[in-house]
């Protein structure tokens, strides 16, 4: 067998070093035993015929092992090929006990047990963090939060001025708050020894107070909420917001109906104290909504545990910033939600009226039932769930609360609800149009009569559809411009094979050939907006963005934001405008940076996401149900 292995050359077999060392050990040990027996003096031991036969078999087996080694020698590595004199030479054993002991373990090696390596638990060394390192880490965390806050202020200023819609602003904001929460969670180990981020906030404030010559509890007036001389600095790390939330948690008892009547001294406290009871009521509901934002999720958790995190405090600060920016227009988000839901529901109802007496095989009656359920779900998107919770927990009926008070004061949640409505309506509309097929028919018919100059005016909705959809997919190539191409492209789009138009096609072939790919359909567009559909429409858990997701965002964000120099009295209002950064098809500087370094700052990512969502507004808001009716379904 050794000779066969050595002769095998396709591919050549390499003898492992461990096997060679084991073979050398076996040969050396058997030789030493044989030498020891043969060197004994006559009469020292009585050896019979059986022992002598055993000695012969032993010597024969040693010869076989040596033959195996010699046969495999060409397939051994150089470092073990000739290393046999120490382990095999008989002189080694005969040179005395000292030499034997010196060479006894020469061929032995220590090998790790692979199974042990796989199951061995990794033990991380304890990281000892002193207070200075914790302060540095906390300062860096606050710096990141501040950069996020700046982007979000710009976002809601842009929403107020009509630059961004409610969906773009809300998704950007909630994504930013999720990133802020992840940043805090990554640093929890550093702050754990000092009471977590809440403890670090207190240390941060006390250190600054002492540095300015104030005692930590100093107040100008006993009834003051805090030392107003330090307000400007303390607001940079959200200390006033922390005090308001913490004071509310002190009086909030899990399981009881919140009846707080906070003293409304400052504007922030007025805003929060009016709306915090509604967040508290939401914590009583065991069912979480898919459109719950980070502030809602974080506050509900805080009401259950009695503990605040920096991410929740930061989310509350962003909530206040939005109120300061929108002022009297803070309920505009709720109006956007009502309009989006009403328009979607009306479109579905009109579609049902139009198709009342129309039936096709591709659209069974069960599909109508699903669409009716969709209309009911859309109608419920702006219903006031809190009124039902108030009744369940025994809220006094004589206390009248404004309907939808939370939604009217919470534009972020309204924007996420609009995203849910649009996403569900958008997806169902494309499925509907593809089943009936009339939009694709109308697209080919309109193109033909337009190219033949048989229309005085363009069909603007269809031209918009051409801009939204992939026309090369719809027309199986470029838009046809000649009469001989209209019918051919239409047949290809309907699923007929191109072989039907081959000049050498057999005339006796039975019927037209079908394409294996089937008929063309309308494609779902708005890739960035659809990234958030599992989260805000289907209730999936938050997942981290993948490099592929970032690629989609950067592909869409070829617009450069330009900040004008206009500011309000507080220096916070910055007008945001959009200008095209690159020509269509060219890569932006940010995309080139991502391709070369795979690095983006958080503000760059948020700004790119905001622009991408805004550029997809027309794609994501297109009414396919209404267009299917207008297209002649």
Automatic annotation (TrEMBL):
<feature type="compositionally biased region" description="Basic and acidic residues">
    <location>
        <begin position="75"/>
        <end position="85"/>
    </location>
</feature>
<dbReference type="InterPro" id="IPR046539">
    <property type="entry name" value="DUF6604"/>
</dbReference>
<feature type="domain" description="DUF6604">
    <location>
        <begin position="1"/>
        <end position="187"/>
    </location>
</feature>
<dbReference type="Pfam" id="PF20253">
    <property type="entry name" value="DUF6604"/>
</dbReference>
<protein>
    <recommendedName>
        <fullName>DUF6604 domain-containing protein</fullName>
    </recommendedName>
</protein>
<feature type="region of interest" description="Disordered">
    <location>
        <begin position="75"/>
        <end position="100"/>
    </location>
</feature>
<feature type="compositionally biased region" description="Polar residues">
    <location>
        <begin position="86"/>
        <end position="100"/>
    </location>
</feature>
